[in-house]
Amino acid sequence: MTKSIEFYFDFISPYSYLAFKKTKSLKVKSSINFIYKPILLGGLHKLGGITAPAFNERKMKNMKNDCILIAQKNNIEFIWNSKFPINSLDIMRGYLSIENEFKEKYFEICFNAYWKNDLDISNSEVINNILEQCKLNKKKFFEKIKNEEIKEELKELTNNAFKNDIFGAPTFVVNKKIFWGQDRLEYALDECKN
Amino acid sequence: MTKSIEFYFDFISPYSYLAFKKTKSLKVKSSINFIYKPILLGGLHKLGGITAPAFNERKMKNMKNDCILIAQKNNIEFIWNSKFPINSLDIMRGYLSIENEFKEKYFEICFNAYWKNDLDISNSEVINNILEQCKLNKKKFFEKIKNEEIKEELKELTNNAFKNDIFGAPTFVVNKKIFWGQDRLEYALDECKN
Question: With contact defined as beta carbons under 8 Å apart, do A151 and A138 qualify?
């Protein structure tokens, strides 16, 4: 039986990128189905009264070293983004605005752009380039992400995550159990056996 | 050659307890020397402008579940302390006040009392019992922990940790590199090979 893991993410989160890369090698080997759940990490932190590590000098320094080390240990291509943190609102709304068939490609290209290729995914030229790679219509994309419905949807998804005790990214949910952080991917996978 | 890992701890920290239990099985197999570095976690958080997970509803809930799960996966006896968090000032000052030959035993008994036996290690009767097990003189102990010198020493150790970019517990330091959290014990051990 195929088991599902909900994977809460924001493209801005380096640990979400690292977790995603780990899942890529897993998916080949196992029958786990990842359901990607977009949230706005900044909004979620605000709701939870949490100061992100990016805004604490020591935590930021540690996070950078830690991510580089995790990438090395897991053979993941990774560059600490020179523009971290950015506003991920447009690119996250974009994920919601596109048709389902494009989501997986968009998901991977956005993560790679930010955490592998050191691009600023809040920049419209960079977004244009991502859309070209995904063969998505640019005009339609930029219209849609300004749409009130899309704006509300991302807000609601973030609010719902908060209501379900989620406070960071990546977060994995299996059997209603919450596993926070790329370090807990293995525990989430274990939970799939139950 | 025996390699050393500095292990920053506070008895109040559940992840420090879990890391300590992991090292116990390691020490038998390897030639790693752990140098215990007491710090006051509350003070360190204050210096770093960090709100401890214990004071955030969602983080607290997650931390409890997470610790229980880590203990299960690693066959570590663990009970979430019913009085968490407490003031660890006396018991931490105590670690500094006793002679070196007693430190290892005191270290283990304090951690077990708080995270295995659900005792309140800020309570003087519980401390009395710990001192009896360590064969330490109670009168001398309670006099010493009120000593200005001991108070200053713990403050200075915490300030020094902060100056060296440490912001949480457990933290491992090897070759001047910082590894934060029980999840990074393995990385710290890998670093010993360099």
Answer: no
